[in-house]
Design a protein that fits this description.
Strand order of the largest sheet: 1-2-3-4
CATH class: Alpha Beta
Largest sheet: 4 strands, parallel
Shape: globular
Radius of gyration: 16 Å
CATH topology: TIM Barrel
Order of helices and strands: HEHEHHEHEHH
Structural class: alpha/beta
Number of strands: 4
Distance between the termini: 31 Å
Strand content: 5-15%
Length: about 140
């Protein structure tokens, strides 16, 4: 994160001045609470947890530890005042557990899987399935 500090500070300030909400992709396994404080000081509004590792391990014994790490990272970001987004390889199958573990999620980015599902199920049914997955996770939080 430090190697990009000048760029992040400059872009964060410009976006903030223009009234544009900003979000920066982060890897929950490498970003630190110090990094989150820096991002907040640069005027960044949100972070988006890169969820590839979570998706890769979903359904495996390793997933519980990965998900716990994502939840810890989200709590750290939230504690310094950053909003939390998540995205990459999210599906209607793995979304509920993520939302349950990270109740402070503001947004999830779902594109590829949703479109693929919609090819088979239609958009109406697909959207309903994703909304159910999110609501189920949120109701348990």
């Amino acid at each position: 994160m430090l190697e990009n500090s000048d760029l992040l500070r400059e872009v964060g300030a410009k976006l903030k001045k223009a009234g544009v909400r900003s979000s920066v992709f982060v890897d929950p396994e490498t970003v630190t609470e110090k990094d989150y404080r820096l991002l907040k000081s640069f005027g960044i509004d949100r972070v988006e947890l890169y969820t590839e590792r979570y998706a890769e391990t979903f359904g495996s014994p390793e997933n519980a530890a990965v998900l716990a790490n994502y939840a810890r990272s989200a709590r750290e970001a939230h504690a310094v005042g950053l909003g939390i987004n998540a995205g990459h390889d999210l599906t209607s199958q793995n979304l509920t557990a993520l939302v349950r573990a990270i109740p402070m999620l503001d947004e999830v980015s779902i594109g590829h899987a949703l479109v693929c599902d919609a090819l088979w199920l239609g958009f109406r049914e697909t959207i309903q399935r994703y909304l159910r997955a999110i609501r189920e996770g949120a109701s348990d939080a």
